[in-house]
Design brief:
Helices cover about 25% and strands about 20% of the residues. The protein is an alpha+beta fold and about 350 residues long. It has two domains: about 5-190, no CATH class; about 205-340, Immunoglobulin-like. A hairpin with a 2-residue loop joins strand 11 and strand 12. Helix 1 packs across helix 6 and helix 2 (about 65-75) packs parallel to helix 6.
């Protein structure tokens, strides 16, 4: 069967943040009173896709295995089960596979191992989008994560990260399944703009779409060669100087960019052939359509290191209104060794 590869923008505190519901005063489980997930845990138990332990506890902060999460998800969405011999979880994993929610390549066959947040994203995006269950459609992980963030299924973690490799607790698992059910019922979930930016960055190498609504001209990283010098633009992050919730606030801590957008360029210099320092402006600069409109911050020189590879960061800020004018005039370019390249896509 020919597979279609979907790479466009189809596509956790933190990944599974609180829904803001009022918590119950008392619980039948002695260890969830006043826990952040108490209310949604009680709701999940009522919906019968999870229960506590015989000792009267729920263990909300215990890690969840792959088998346990699949069981919870299949029970929650009412997937039909068939009798299976073998391990207790086999009816659920078979139902998940037959429905297209789970694929064998989603994770290892260690079903008793802790499930990661990325593995959960793979399952819940298919659970909420029947088209993605088609085996002829393969979606890359960054696109799945971006889709989940746009729908509000996932949120960012403290410290400006998504934490896709981290494990998940029972309380967090219940929270995300509650979000799945709300979305399947036609609800609209609150979204975390920071999480969307983080996933946009992982998908395209920039967060231009999520901040500016303007796609980049290409996917980063991009490598250039200027004589004996190799220059790679690893990623470009745009930061709204008036957004206190940006996950990239640390990039501009010592700068006054209020009323501006700051573009953070992460650059990698290959000096193995040149074997000497160089001046940044001779190899990289931002175009200035309006004199004095662009302010730069970063090292003036790149120092040759023993490894031959030097990494630097350049912050370029531009007034928001002036950026709009740039876009109206045809866009904004960066120059590599004197040759200009468009920063944004579809410039007129």
């Amino acid at each position: 069967m020919i597979k279609r590869i979907v790479t466009s923008t189809l596509v956790t505190a933190g990944l599974f943040a609180s829904l803001g519901v009022v918590q119950a005063k008392e619980s039948r489980f002695q260890d969830i009173n006043h826990h952040w997930g108490q209310s949604v845990i009680e709701k999940a138990v009522t919906q019968a896709y999870i229960d506590g332990y015989s000792d009267g506890t729920f263990k909300p902060d215990a890690a969840v295995s792959r088998a346990e999460f699949i069981k919870m998800l299949m029970a929650a969405i009412g997937q039909q089960l068939t009798s299976e011999s073998g391990e207790w979880y086999e009816p659920y994993t078979k139902a998940a596979t037959q429905s297209g929610v789970h694929r064998d390549m989603d994770f290892t066959q260690d079903m008793n191992g802790e499930i990661s947040r990325l593995e959960i994203v793979r399952l819940i995006t298919r659970a909420t989008n029947i088209e993605l269950r088609n085996p002829a459609i393969t979606v890359e992980d960054p696109a799945l994560v971006y889709s989940a963030a746009k729908k509000g299924l996932i949120q960012g973690l403290e410290g400006g990260r998504i934490g896709l490799s981290e494990s998940t607790t029972r309380a967090q698992a219940v929270m995300v399944i509650d979000r799945v059910l709300r979305l399947k019922d036609g609800g609209v979930l609150p979204v975390d703009k920071g999480a969307i930016q983080l996933t946009d960055l992982s998908l395209t190498g920039t967060n231009f779409m999520s901040v500016l609504g303007q796609p980049a001209s290409r996917k980063f990283p991009v490598e250039y060669r200027i004589g004996e010098v190799g220059l790679t633009i690893e990623e470009i992050t745009v930061i709204d100087g008036n957004d206190p919730t940006t996950p990239f606030a640390s990039e501009i801590q010592e700068q006054n960019v209020s009323g501006s957008y700051a573009f953070s360029f992460k650059l990698s210099w290959d000096l193995r052939k040149l074997q000497q320092d160089l001046q940044v402006a001779d190899y990289f600069r931002m175009d200035e359509l309006i004199p004095g409109s662009v302010q730069g911050s970063g090292p003036e020189f790149v120092t040759y290191e023993d490894s031959g590879i030097t990494r630097t960061k350049l912050i370029v800020s531009v007034d928001k209104e002036q950026l709009k004018e740039y876009l109206l005039k045809g866009g904004w370019n960066y120059a590599i060794g004197g040759k200009e390249y468009p920063l944004f896509y579809e410039q007129s």
